[in-house]
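RECORD TYPE: inverse folding
INPUT: structure tokens
STRUCTURE:
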């Protein structure tokens, strides 16, 4: 994929692929796997199976690029791909060079993350013992995921932050189920104090391949 300058305005990170196939099949396969259940917390859902579906997809075909709108003035952008019959959210996240997310929870939802382009570094933290914070947050692990690798995250594993430590845009595919954060927001945490605050809504930058007006 050819890198582009997105400093002045939001831009898709690649040309629209003329041959749509494998990425759309992945989207449908994830939706089919979730089926009528309520998400990854249901007994009939196999997290490893969902992970394998994402892992088996080769991101080099760049069919996902039609959803990859980036904005270098932001740490990252959230681009909606599919809402999974109301059972999940599938997003393409575009990460600006040298930036990342705040430390956050997942609103009692589960997240699968596949790296589509570049590398992303995940730092996991312990939950503070009190909501007001009790000092510097404790790091559990720090790991860099490379292109086509898949990671799984849920609140029982702790909190995390994701950063793009590279010099070019990175892109990842995220499956959230149930879509609790889209409906009720999440909590972000101050690394130095552990104090948490609630973010009522996590907005989309684009939806189904089109920029949203509030993003312009």
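DESIGNED SEQUENCE:
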């Amino acid at each position: 994929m050819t890198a582009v300058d997105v400093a002045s305005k939001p831009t898709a990170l690649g040309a629209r692929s003329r041959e749509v196939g494998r990425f759309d099949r992945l989207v449908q396969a994830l939706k089919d796997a979730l089926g009528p259940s309520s998400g990854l917390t249901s007994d009939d859902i196999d997290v490893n199976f969902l992970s394998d579906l994402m892992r088996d997809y080769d991101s080099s075909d760049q069919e996902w690029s039609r959803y990859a709108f980036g904005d270098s003035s932001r740490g990252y952008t959230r681009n909606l791909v599919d809402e999974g019959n109301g059972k999940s959210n599938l997003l393409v996240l575009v990460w600006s060079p040298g930036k990342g997310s705040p430390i956050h929870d997942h609103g009692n939802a589960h997240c699968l993350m596949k790296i589509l382009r570049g590398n992303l570094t995940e730092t996991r933290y312990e939950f503070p013992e009190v909501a007001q914070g009790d000092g510097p947050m404790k790091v559990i692990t720090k790991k860099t995921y490379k292109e086509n690798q898949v990671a799984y995250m849920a609140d029982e594993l702790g909190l995390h932050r994701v950063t793009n430590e590279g010099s070019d845009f990175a892109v990842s595919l995220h499956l959230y189920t149930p879509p609790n954060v889209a409906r009720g927001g999440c909590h972000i945490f101050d690394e130095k104090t552990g104090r948490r605050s609630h973010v009522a809504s996590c907005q989309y930058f684009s939806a189904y391949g089109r920029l949203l007006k509030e993003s312009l």
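NOTES: The longest helix spans residues 22-34.
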